[in-house]
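Lab meeting, item 3. Inverse folding demo.
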């Protein structure tokens, strides 16, 4: 695990420059991105370059394990580490998808109105998922609710109506509460 990986992307250290990372640094960045995403009330900027590099690293580790004897203790330890890394990666992606599902009208609206030079908060795959999720949700709401109403309300844009309603309950697509207190564990403990 002493090899170094090249990570290209705007989210690392500015522009489109390459940053050389060790696998441990790469996993550290993934864990940090996961924690940030988990505790942030809104969807943060996507880290597709980190996800891609971690997936490549997992494939590389899998290939290396195929060449080693099965009885070796190192194999089981490496497999456990690979499963841990897969869990962190899937947890990061799952957290992002939950936020996209919960706030999809707001996420798509922010993406549509984002200034030209500002980086996207969604990866291309997440954007396609959000659009497809919106289409399916709108079709479901039309089939369940609007179809059974008189003709006049059937012309209403249901998602915009639900999104614009504000009340004591949290509705589909309601925006996250940025005033909500977030508690997270400290990274290190200070001793007197």
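The presenter then showed the designed sequence:
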């Amino acid at each position: 695990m002493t090899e170094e990986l090249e990570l290209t992307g705007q989210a690392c250290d500015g522009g489109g420059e390459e940053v050389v990372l060790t696998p441990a640094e790469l996993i550290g960045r993934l864990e940090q991105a996961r924690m940030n995403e988990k505790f942030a009330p809104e969807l943060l900027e996507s880290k597709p370059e980190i996800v891609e590099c971690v997936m490549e690293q997992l494939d590389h580790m899998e290939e290396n394990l195929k060449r080693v004897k099965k009885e070796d203790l190192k194999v089981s330890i490496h497999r456990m580490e690979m499963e841990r890394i897969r869990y962190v990666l899937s947890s990061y992606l799952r957290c992002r998808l939950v936020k996209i599902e919960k706030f999809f009208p707001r996420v798509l609206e922010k993406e549509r109105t984002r200034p030209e030079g500002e980086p996207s908060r969604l990866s291309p795959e997440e954007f396609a998922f959000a659009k497809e999720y919106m289409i399916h949700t709108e079709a479901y709401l039309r089939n369940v609710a609007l179809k059974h109403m008189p003709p006049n309300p059937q012309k209403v844009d249901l998602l915009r109506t639900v999104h614009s309603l504000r009340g004591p309950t949290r509705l589909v697509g309601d925006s996250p509460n940025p005033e909500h207190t977030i508690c997270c564990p400290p990274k290190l403990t200070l001793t007197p």
